[in-house]
Amino acid sequence: MHGSLRQFSRSHVVSSEAKPTSLDAFTEEEQMLRESVRRFAEDVVGPKVREMDENEMMDPAVIKGLFEQGLMGIETSGDHGGAEMSFTSAIIAIEELARVDPSVSVLCDVHNTLVNTVVRKYGSKEQQDKWLPKLSESSLGSFCLSEPASGSDAFALQTRAKKDGDHWILNGTKMWITNSYEADFFLIFANIDPSKGYKGITCFIATKDMGIKIAKKEQKLGIRASSTCSLAFDDLRIPAENVIGGEGKGYKIAIEILNEGRIGIAAQMLGLAQGAFDKAVPYTFQRSQFGKPVATFQGMAFQQAEAAIELEAARLLTYNAARRKEEGLDFVREAAIAKYYASQVAQKVSGAAIEWAGGVGFTRETGIEKYWRDSKIGAIYEGTSNIQLQTIAKFIQKQYS
């Protein structure tokens, strides 16, 4: 009898006074944010998307607009110049930007879910007072963890930091660093005591004018307007007061922040897939063959129905992970599931969207093919698909073994 009982171990109890809601229930504030970000994305970002992609460069006016719209300090307190909104609000903004341009979306995502969150969560009061207003109003942030020899194995990093009086001296290189070309503010992970292994990893605050060098700007398949660079640190002097979260605490910061960052990537992939769907489907009703719109042929109609189902599933997984994080519940498993699935859906739906539009979809003029190029990164950054599967598998093993 006991073996047949359904396990409810992952559920949480809702008090009898509070009624459960659907996963697409939003506050008035969140709904207003969605509408304003959608307008900004369509009106300001939309006309620049192709040019930015072709030039492989973010338009400074777009970055300036993101700050002016209050989208660069979504969760940050009003006292520090932020919008003081929910985590789900940040996820909504990332999703809506990705519907129009995933490159702009990831710029906003990394700045909010990684950079701002580290300063808010681990920074001292002095650090928060000094840096959060700048990050809310003008300074773009970058998160510097990956290196040539440390990708999925993030804690194999080789960048070193040595104490020199009231400064730390950093030497090493970073690779695949998002936002780094335009950023003024950098969170850099370095090891202050390799004999301690990953427990020597420490997080430092640095600014570009300290002497951070762009070694190489990558030319990529997709999200080409989002800068991805290699950085070189050659005796980079950082004030000791710029250690954030404490010496040797960098590994803890990185693990915790990347877990919630994955929900941001899920939102980016969700928005991307929806954007491709929204662009391709109307065309299939305008394009007629054999006397009727191609969308009305069963082969096409069923593909679109399946894509709509997968989009809805990705949306619910993403919002569920976001709400759990917001409620203070465990969300690591849910974040891994959302990130994995949304990145799969993004590739599948954006690829199908090209086929739905036929030859026109294959041209750069429509912008549909760009979604497919942009989708591939979802299976790679902030934890590859295999890393997500490994994380999910560990939860299964823990529950059933």
Automatic annotation (TrEMBL):
GO terms for biological process: carboxylic acid catabolic process; fatty acid metabolic process. It catalyses: (2R)-2-methylbutanoyl-CoA + oxidized [electron-transfer flavoprotein] + H(+) = ethylacryloyl-CoA + reduced [electron-transfer flavoprotein]; hexanoyl-CoA + oxidized [electron-transfer flavoprotein] + H(+) = (2E)-hexenoyl-CoA + reduced [electron-transfer flavoprotein]; 2-methylpropanoyl-CoA + oxidized [electron-transfer flavoprotein] + H(+) = 2-methylpropenoyl-CoA + reduced [electron-transfer flavoprotein]; 2-methylbutanoyl-CoA + oxidized [electron-transfer flavoprotein] + H(+) = (2E)-2-methylbut-2-enoyl-CoA + reduced [electron-transfer flavoprotein]. Pathway: Lipid metabolism; mitochondrial fatty acid beta-oxidation; Amino-acid degradation; L-isoleucine degradation. Residues 142-235 form the Acyl-CoA oxidase/dehydrogenase middle domain. The keyword Ribonucleoprotein does not apply. Gene3D superfamilies: Acyl-CoA dehydrogenase/oxidase, N-terminal domain (1.10.540.10), Butyryl-CoA Dehydrogenase, subunit A, domain 2 (2.40.110.10), Butyryl-CoA Dehydrogenase, subunit A, domain 3 (1.20.140.10). Residues 27-136 form the Acyl-CoA dehydrogenase/oxidase N-terminal domain. GO terms for molecular function: flavin adenine dinucleotide binding; short-chain 2-methyl fatty acyl-CoA dehydrogenase activity. It is found in: Mitochondrion matrix. Its main location: mitochondrion. Its cofactor is FAD. Residues 248-396 form the Acyl-CoA dehydrogenase/oxidase C-terminal domain. Keywords: Acetylation, FAD, Fatty acid metabolism, Flavoprotein, Lipid metabolism, Mitochondrion, Oxidoreductase, Phosphoprotein, Transit peptide. It comes from the Eukaryota. One of its GO terms (cellular component) is mitochondrial matrix. PROSITE patterns: ACYL_COA_DH_1, ACYL_COA_DH_2. Its EC number is 1.3.8.5. Belongs to the acyl-CoA dehydrogenase family. Homotetramer. This is Short/branched chain specific acyl-CoA dehydrogenase, mitochondrial. It comes from Trametes pubescens (White-rot fungus).
